[in-house]
Amino acid sequence: MYKIIEKLFTFLYPIFRKWGLGSSFASYLSLLLNIAILCLLAYAIYIVFRLVLVTVMMVIAQKTKTKFDDLLVTNKTAKYIAHLIPLLFIYKSVPIILERYEYWEGVFGKLVGIYIVILVLWIIRTIFNALRDYLKLKPRYSDKPIDSFIQVVMIVLWMVGITVIISKLFDIDQKELLTILGAVSAVIILIFRDTILGFVSSVQVSINDMVRIGDWITMDKFGADGDVIEINLATVKVRNFDNTTTTIPTYSLSSDSFQNWRGMLNSDGRRIKRHILIKASSIRFLEEAELNDLKKIHLISEYIDTRKLEIDNYNFINKVDKSLALNGRNLTNLGLFRKYITEYLFNYPGLNQDMLMLCRQLQSTSQGIPLEVYAFSHDKRFENYEYIMSDIFDHIIAAVPYFDLEIFELPSHGKIIADE
Prior knowledge:
Keywords: Membrane, Transmembrane, Transmembrane helix. By secondary structure, the protein is of the alpha+beta class.
């Protein structure tokens, strides 16, 4: 190949000399014609190879089932490769054409060599972009931070490419250049601190499966509450539920605390955990007449009969003096209300009956007795979940007066003045 190029660009000068032209004039004339021939040949090679490579790749993409070659066509990989081939031809031809002009041979040789290095890196980038798009089509990789890994690889390749470019540009041995770069590594680490931290965090996030694209995360420190839409080397983008976008440094995912709701979304139910405050002064023992009235409530009528029989038997056997309600065993309006809420939850169609479900009393507070509902909604979608929870508490709040209980409320300003 080299001999063919040599013959192509060296035959003009001897011809011009035979024609009686001077050495200097023949040299310049052959140089100009050789440059024109080089440009025409390089352009012709580019046109031919672009047509061949693009056509072949498109035909292969149409005939194969895999999407990877289609993505190579989309990212114009063949077109960039077609640019590379005439550049290699020029790179081999420059030393021959400019043999008599050492200075310009060095200048153009370096420029073409640098362009080749940049073009090779660009071709590799298009291949990686096609690979990224291909992997994102796969369900198992769609939620992985592929962009981060590709960015890391490209950074390493660009560093290698810049090293080669500098060594060519200043005629420095690559080993010596690496030694110099090693001496200033502290500065480089300082400059690329976020990138290095982001890379380490990306690896941790991927290996530990901490965050995926599409996950709902909450991070109060950055005001993030929404779905992860992008994971890069340096940042993680979250689309909040108010349609704003929050950008979080990737390394913050491994250094700070955040909440990932994926487990809930993948589970069989979304937790409902909410309480109402019952005024302590409204809690009391129930009398016989009140129990007979409460037996009209379908969900607890059988329970009242069973419990009343148990309590009466206990008090009779132990000869309890029932002239005072405090003696022996008794039913309270709060206890019966808790039982009613429990039965209501078990009969509510929107709740998952296979998961934990209860109504419990929490530690007393200065505002009253917290009565908490703990259950799991079948439907995990936000709007439906909120509807189910509101529907349950609408009913519970409306049911409170039937048990002669009161919900604690802070007195209004007007009420305080009236009391004074």
